[in-house]
Specification:
173 residues; 8 strands; 3-methyladenine DNA Glycosylase, Chain A; single chain; mainly beta
Length: 173
């Protein structure tokens, strides 16, 4: 099967349509030394706009969240605990801040481990997934079953946000 990069039209949809389609897709990383690796996405979480109190956009448009207000297909990275970069893919139309957090790929079972292993840092902020030479997504080559659960580590957001089934975990069929 020919590997095809996902284009902008994949990302310019509501996060709740994009996120459940991401497990099983290949996250492709071209490193500075020229090596290229494909990692199957296993787990993601959806963050949906200003009304979602677990979403950074709920605090308004800031320098940190600016890229979330762009049309889907951009990378949103941010630092937590002063040591871990979190990798997110912006979705939706312009001025509709939404993003998908990549929680796990094969070989890296956690968002901090993932970004360390893939050498993701602040330089990826705002990168275009449809044209990037160092990171992109490709269509899935296998079928995955998707399980929906509540998101992890967002108790600060309160109800109803902590129990929204916006975490999507994929397993091979």
């Amino acid at each position: 099967m020919k590997r095809e990069r996902l284009e902008h039209n994949f990302y310019i949809r509501d996060v709740l349509d994009v996120a459940p389609e991401m497990p099983g897709k290949s996250l492709v990383r071209q490193f500075d030394n020229g090596s290229l690796y494909r990692y199957t996405i296993l787990e993601v979480e959806a963050y949906r706009g200003k009304e979602d109190l677990a979403c950074h956009a709920s605090k308004g448009r800031t320098n940190r969240t600016e890229v979330m207000y762009h049309a889907g297909g951009k990378i949103y990275v941010y630092l937590i605990y002063g040591m871990y970069w979190m990798l997110n893919f912006v979705t939706g139309e312009q001025d509709t801040p939404q993003a998908v957090l990549i929680r796990a790929v094969e070989g890296f079972d956690g968002p901090g481990k993932l970004t360390r292993g893939l050498q993701i840092d602040s330089s990826f902020y705002g990168e275009d997934l449809a044209t990037s030479k160092r990171i992109w997504l490709e269509h899935a080559t296998e079928k995955f079953d998707i399980v929906r659960t509540k998101r992890i580590g967002i108790d600060y957001a309160g109800e109803p946000w902590i129990n929204k089934p916006w975490r999507f975990v994929g397993t091979r069929q």
